[in-house]
Amino acid sequence: MPCRFKHAALVGKYHARGIRPVLEDVAHILARAGCEVSLEMETAHNTGMTDYPALTLAQIGRECDVAVVLGGDGTMLAVARELAPFNVPLVGINQGRLGFITDIQQKDMPTALPLILSGQYEEEHRAMLQGAVLRPTRDGGIETIYEDFAINEVVVSRGATASMVELRAEIEGQFVANYRADGLIVCSPTGSTAYAMSAGGPILQPGLGGWALVPIASHTLSNRPIVVSDRDTITIEIVAAKDASMNFDMQSLASLLPGDRVTIRRSDHRVRFLHPKGWNYFATLRRKLRWNEGVS
């Protein structure tokens, strides 16, 4: 079967034990399918694989037309955030635990990957969050001190101290609620099965045009998760906090001060995933969350 892609990038969870032989197997599958193969630079340097050119993620975005990611969801999130502006489709091979977005199991890789490369796949587009921290200046102005993207969630929370934070949430300038809690999660449908789910949030179908606001250990028990339109801008103000921070997909951090305002909106970029033919989201939920166990 002819390959639909000319230049494939391979990115691996390079610090995982025993990853190099699996990366070599994937690289051989890509080459046999007719792809020019390059390795992500950190993957190449940390595994000692020198048989293929090494590219940065920015170079991959400019030069490659598909990226195969070998790792867990965390590895995929980090790669997807960098490649989304380039519209490069991603294929995930699971080396982690749950693997909601790295959905090809290693045992299925020899058959599933060549089929995807030949064009037999389900393509899916996922929305991203874009967040910024706005801080008042001494002259009465506002400056943007931090910006980043997230695929799963933006989290505003207490830092290292044990005390709660007080947050004020608005949607399109309309007051929603004040939260005294450990924090507040704003998650995408993709992120609804991550941190937000463990905090009691709802699971959102990936194509849904909405975000979920999920309080973390709220002092007011009636503060419940709420689903809002992803067309609106969410603003979270730090009302009171001894130590507060925010993060994007649990990776990027910024310290916050009282008076800071975090704005969250839908990014102009989307993530492209290629799944095996016949893939569907609900089958993934049943398998990953073990909904079928104990059911006759």
Structural description of this entry:
By secondary structure, the protein is of the alpha/beta class. It contains seven helices and 18 strands. The strands form three sheets. A six-stranded parallel beta sheet has the order 3-2-1-4-5-6, with helices on both faces. Strands 8-7-18-15-10-11 form a six-stranded antiparallel beta sheet. The longest helix is centred in the N-terminal third of the chain and has 14 residues, at 19-32.
User: How many DSSP E strands?
Assistant: 18
Can you tell me the overall shape?
globular
Beta-strand content bin: 35-45%
Helix content: 10-25%
How much is the radius of gyration in Å? Answer: 21 Å
Order of helices and strands: EHEHEHEHEEHEEEEEEHEEEEEEH
* Class based on secondary structure composition and strand pairing: alpha/beta
DSSP helical segment count: 7
CA distance, first residue to last residue: 40 Å
| Biggest pleated-sheet summary | 6 strands, parallel
Mean pLDDT: 93
Poorly predicted spans = none
Strand order of the largest sheet: 3-2-1-4-5-6
